[in-house]
Amino acid sequence: MYRLAAFLFAPLVLTLVVHGRLAAQTVERIRLANPTAEFPEPFSSIAGMRELSDGRVVVSDRLEKAVRILDFGSGSLREVGRVGSGPGEYQMPGTLLPLAADSTLLVDFGNLRVIVIGPDGRIHGSTSMQHETGRFINPQGSDAEGRIYFDDLGSYSGPPDVLPDSAAILRWDLVADRFDTVGFMPRPEVRMMSAGGGGGRYGVGRMNPLEARDAWSVAPDGSLAIARSDPFHVEWRMPDGRAARGPEVTYEPVSVTDEDKEEFANRSAMGGMYTSGGEVGGRGYIRLPSPDAYEMVWPEVKPPFTRDGVRVTPEGEVWVRRYVAHGAPQVHDVFDGAGRRIKQVELPAGRRLVGFGDGVLYLVRVDEDDLQWVEQYPR
To answer: Could you check whether the bond before residue 159 is cis, i.e. omega within 30 degrees of 0?
Structure first.
């Protein structure tokens, strides 16, 4: 592990207010119109984004294998690091998470490591995602102290037919190299497969791309925001043990159509997974073939929200991306610190939400040439 401690001291901590359970309510839907700014250079496949305290924006592009810092004021950009496997290099830039002291954590699945980028735009260290404890660290959130949060799905080593029905949400202190359990989530159904005489086992999702599943995100103070699918509501779990459960949100289920299945087949692949031994390529990350969408298990209606669509703003609001009809604009339910839905936000057609900043949000627009443009909107 390279030296990371200098970039991980804690800034101010957000305080959340807890209220009792309230009745569900009808809320205003806000339709975003025109962006206040659009960056003048396009991207190919934006995988991660975060805003720095001075308004600059860090963007990772998986297809171009690049990390860049954008300045919306001047329209300039700066390259961070380079492609490779050595110090200051990455192979598959992905998720970007804010750390303390205006540093940024980059998830690099190509080298199976996480990388710290300083506010100066330089890479200051990295450490393996394959921890010596046997855990596979796939960062999904961070707090103001620079601690990393992830589902502990990859370290189970027991018999495949007795998988536990829940998985821990772990908090990883990079400086102390210490793990704490901060919550639990239902474990998604998997089927276990073996390959080769070594008997290496790996889990494969049961091929239900629209299976209803709870999801979570982290606030700057370390509170967990958990979106529950049945019934649909938002819960808060505070670092001091307090909890707040919001009211149930009623909604009209959206039917799954052939267009949904075809879209999934055109843009989706199973990608890869983590393995822990045997003859399945050894311990590491391997690729799997794309599934046939029409051989998958499809429900009649879509769940209330997407699996990857729960985000917490710097101020502590929870944005939950709703499933909508095929081709319809994205819609996000917005919840407060008590789990109450306070508004809905509808994005312009053809846009997707990729990040938040100081009083702004960032959307990606895809043009007719499949180039991706970053837009900035007020919120």
So the answer is: no
